[in-house]
Amino acid sequence: MKIAFPRWPGLFSALFLVWVSFGLSLEAQDEKSLWKEILTAKSAEIPSDPGGEIQWRSDLAGAFAEARDKNIPLLVTWRCLPCEQCAEFDKDVLDGSSELSPLLRRFITVRMTNATALDETYFPYRTHQDLDLSWWAYFLSPEGELYGVFGGKDHVSDSTRISEKAFVNSLDRVLNHHYHPRRKAWKIDLPPRTDATAATSPQETKGYQLLLEDRPNLEKPHPQFGSCLHCHQVGDTLNLEAMDEGTFRAQTLKEKWPLPENLGILLDRDDGLLIRSITPGSPAETAGLKAGDRLGMANRTRLFGQADFRGVLHRAKDTDAILVGLTRDGEESFASLQPTPGWKTTENWWRKTVYDGVYGPGMGFFPLKGPQAGKGKGLSIKPWMGRPPTGRPIYQTGLRPNMEIIAINEMSEDMEIRKLIAWFRLNHQPGDEVTYTVRGGQKFRYTLPEK
Where do the DSSP E strands lie in 23-133? Predict the structure, then answer.
């Protein structure tokens, strides 16, 4: 007679899985309870407006000391002065207004104008800053914890994603978060980075040394602003590091700081977190989001404005689900957004790190608008080769500056110049042979240099 013994290993595995699932379920429930408390928290008692002039400091260490002494949050803005982008918004912030100034006076306000001071201890620019913008803001606790960020742009304009009203709303939300009596117990703020690899300046990184090799005039002083490292140049250092490590993909340049619309969410610009509409058939509709919902959390990150949400999307992997917390009619709710492959692709040709980046080959000349450009008649550019043009290798192909190029290989679409340059860099490799067709049908073949 055979005796049947219990299959203990299998039973143990099953019990272990049940225990783990139960533990994870409890953890998920605890997390939802925490975010329910956060999302529905009442407004905190914020100190009254101290009045007086707004003081824009430039000493970070002194600003942190003052913030700790007074228990006041910090607002640190970064502005690349030579860049015209976002200059109007920068002026609005500096000038203040009846709505803006009372909020700014409740912060230790700091204005930085050189990206060499980007200290990774407090400013996680690799993951939380859109380095293609010339104006960006960080909200920090006196201890250097990161609350959130503010800024934004798209291919339409400098003001499509930001406004004074949006900034006012973000400032107000940050103040309510900072002064809430349960804030420290929540433990949701990003702590300062203290590992040995954190650089106190981008100039300490390997990427910066690689950038100096690629652009030896980088440290040449600007005639008006002196020595200055631009934020987009910091972005170039990150791309060079990835290229050096063999992890660089040109596709990632098309996926930087995706728009909420990529998931079917149109946010109100001035509110920053209020959903205006949902695209039918989108991941947002599938997840049950509705117009009128207000986002408050995404992937365990508290949101104070649209930039925080875009930052979560920027850091998310292409196929990962994105957990969002929201309020609807005063009640909290949660939803899981399941993106479709390729969802991060965005119109990013306007970015300096894309159209004038350190990756990919140039055309052999700089494209200028041709006589038919912008007239709906296809590609029309003229090749500017500098003075004298005879020194350019492409001149040896027979192509001349007075000729009108109407096709690059098989591409004949009329594009804005920066978009054309970005398209070329993203779709060609060093060593490729390119055919330029000029009006009249003559073709010139050019091999893109290896360096």
Answer: 74-79, 108-112
The interaxial angle of helices 206-214 and 231-245, nearest 10 deg, is 100
Quote the pTM value.
0.91
Task: Return the structure tokens found at 291.
Answer: 């117009």
Measured CA to CA, the distance from residue 74 to residue 53 in angstroms comes to 16
List all residues 6 or more positions away from 394 whose beta carbon is below 8 Å from its beta carbon. Answer: 363, 364, 365, 383, 385, 444, 446
Mean pLDDT by 10 residues, the chain (451 residues): 39 45 54 94 96 96 98 97 88 96 98 96 98 97 98 96 98 98 97 93 96 85 70 96 96 96 98 98 98 98 98 94 96 96 96 94 96 96 95 96 97 97 95 97 95 68
Query: Which residue from 219, 220, 191, 217 is spatially nearest to 203, judged by alpha carbons?
Result: 219
Domains annotated for the chain, with CATH where assigned, are: 47-252 (3.40.30.10), 260-337 (2.30.42.10), 360-447 (2.30.42.10)
The residue among 158, 28, 46 whose CA lies nearest residue 92 is: 158
Q: Rounded to whole angstroms, how far apart are CA atoms 204 and 202?
A: 5
